[in-house]
Amino acid sequence: MTQGAEPETLSSLVAERVGTGRGMTYRKFEELAVDPEDGKSPSRDTLWKISHGRPIKVNPSIVRAVAAALNLPTARVQAAAAYEYTGLNVSEVAGGLVLHDPNVDANTPEVRKAVRRQQEREEGEEG
User: Fold this and answer.
1) Fewer CB in a 10 Å sphere around the end CB: N or C, the chain?
2) Taking a C-beta distance cutoff of 8 angstroms, is the pair 117, 41 a contact?
3) For residue 96, what is the enclosing H or E element?
4) What one-character DSSP code corresponds to residue 24?
């Protein structure tokens, strides 16, 4: 995600890739929308709502299924869903992901330091 650009939304990711004249038919999208972790598929109604920018009860399984169908990294689709349904941005800072208000700069020395501290804690837990 580039600074200053409008963040992606879940519906914009789908709209760019699914439909007449795009890389994938809606039927194929429905077939491919399967969560690789739990094998669940969102309902046809849920996928229609996503593709038309309507509100849904978002959950991790739906996000993973959409990511799988679109062949996109799950983190990218999670960030798009976070922005669309919560209004929060996800930015990469110092090798980590930071969820923040769109009006706040996430790439500050304080945030970079906090991300590094969190990474060190996580590495300590693994070792």
Assistant:
1) C
2) no
3) strand 96-100
4) B
Report whether 65 contacts 33 (CB < 8 A).
yes
Q: Which two tokens stand for residue 70?
A: 């679109």
In the block, which residue shows the tokens 């330091």?
Answer: 113
Place of tokens 């590094």: 116
Residue 15, both tokens: 């709209």
Residue with tokens 């169908």: 69
Judge residue 50's burial from the number of C-beta atoms within 10 Å of its C-beta, 0-12 exposed, 13-18 middle, 19 or more buried.
buried
* Tens of pLDDT, residues 61-90: 999 999 999 999 999 999 999 999 999 988
Burial of 18: CB neighbours in 10 Å, binned 0-12, 13-18, 19+: buried
Residue whose tokens read 């110092």:
94
Give residue 34's pLDDT band: very low, low, confident or very high (50, 70, 90): very high
| Structure tokens belonging to residue 81 | 């869903």
Higher pLDDT, 52 or 6: 52
Give the per-residue pLDDT at 56: 95
Distance CA(2)–CA(106), nearest Å, equals 12
Q: How many residues does the chain have?
A: 127
Structure tokens at 98: 């930071």
